[in-house]
Amino acid sequence: MQASKTRIFYPLIIIFTFFTANAFAQNESYIQLLGKQNRWVDSVYNKMSRKQRIAQLLFVRAHTNKGKMYEDSVGQVIKEQQLGGVVFFQGGPVRQAALINKYQKLAKVPLIITMDGEWGLGMRLDSTISYPYQMTLGAIQDNNLIYKMGQQVAYDFKRLGMQMNLGPDMDVNNNPNNPVINYRSFGDNMYNVAKKGIAYFKGMQDAGLLTSAKHFPGHGDTNVDSHFDLPLLPYSRGRLDSLEMYPFREAINAGISGVMIAHMNIPSLDNTPKLPSTLSRPIITGILKDSLKFKGLVVSDAMEMKGVTKYFPNGEADVKAFIAGNDIIELSENSDRAIGLIRKALRHGSVSAAEFEARIKKILLAKFWAGLNQYKPTALTNLSQDINSDAAKTLVQQLSDASVTQLKNNGPKLNPFLKTAIVSIGVSSPTVFQMEVAKSFPNSRIFIVNKDAPAIEVTNILNWLKQYQQVIVGIHDTRLRPQSKLDYSGDVKLMIADLASRKNTAFSVFANAYTIAGLPGLEKAGNLMVCYQMSPELQQSAAKVLNGRLKPTGKLPVSVNAFFTTGMGL
Prior knowledge:
The chain is an alpha/beta fold and about 575 residues long. Helix content is about 40%, strand content about 10%. The protein contains 22 helices and 15 strands. The strands form three sheets. The chain has a six-stranded parallel β-sheet with strand order 5-4-3-2-1-9. Helix 8 (about 145-160) packs antiparallel against helix 18. The protein is elongated. The relative contact order is 0.11.
């Protein structure tokens, strides 16, 4: 009987914790707390040795998809070094919550647990909800929906025992060929990026989650992925001030709790050869902290990335990142070595004692604000149900509905009684889009066109489609991440151009908006919608528009080409 009572009351405890944290965070933000003395912070700081204080700067990588040996090795590092936090990557939610509980037991001072969750838990974890990508969100006109998403993401994170999201991405993606930001950005309009980013992080912070806008001073106009090399940003200080830094300046003014630094070489801000911005004191302390008056947590991008280790190996990057002004040094290649090198730098006076104390107390205050001064293990009961709630799924559909963007609508109005072909291109089996559309077009047939369909098959299908009075086409990108160019064969692209020239054809693009530029002739289509990604929810949204049950309200968040520019949408 007693066990039964426990099962009933656990969800109530969880909900109560969430809402009290929510109310607390709205009363006093992390940034507002920074100027005040805190007894818990002072007490913890005073009990630490210098080595333990330095360890608070370092956050280690963790997974739940690499086996027990890997998990135990991370646990050993946490136990021996007493680090400040853990950054989780791929795995599963229940496994992760259990492992968080295990790791927290090993820490004398509770760990900040964080993860990249730009589109929620689904960015890293299986069996969890993925909210729309930020480019998709960039099309939405009601920013309150994005605020609600932030609140829900915060609930999901906290339900797993996490205190911080390494998001939102507040880069202005003004390079369509950007290999690393792209669809992770809200778009190429700096005002839209700022408003969407603020709505998102305010939702998270008001629900008690620490956040981190990234990647300062702006990673949107690069053609190199900093995971593999050091990008060069060759622009003037004036250009960077007025464009790239604008969303970060607005986020700081709106009270963001954290800012992540990019690995980029920016000669106009620091002319040291091959120096990543992560290691630049003029950029981090001079611009971000002094000029922009940012008081919150400064987080390095991953210190294991080639953009930083290529030119500063063997721990040199870690100590330079510390001297530059980073508060959290994320994913050092060797945290034990990093602690030793930072101790040496402190002995040599590279950072003053007062600055060092302030930075460590800033981390401890973040732990206090997130409730870690009263740490409780995460309840595993009903965890999967709690993070996959009907309310969350409904919100994903609402966000999807609000993002659909009608670029053209001057073809014949679709008639549900006409002989209709419903075509999905780039797939190997019928799609959600086709199944949903077919419900309102009883006299229809489904066609599938593989992305590398041979010329003879393309010709045959085109001939077949001439027999139909109207054709509804879905263009799909089945890849895990929607890139700027579709990997379709030349014959399939020619097929799309042929269909676009026929006035009885309506197109829906379930791919990165930039892919439209690589489909010459598509601008001639009479009816064209862009739906940004191939999620089931967006396919349902497009079907609702075609079935007359939804009026599309989205606006294009990026300029695709001369025909389709930022802000377009009927």
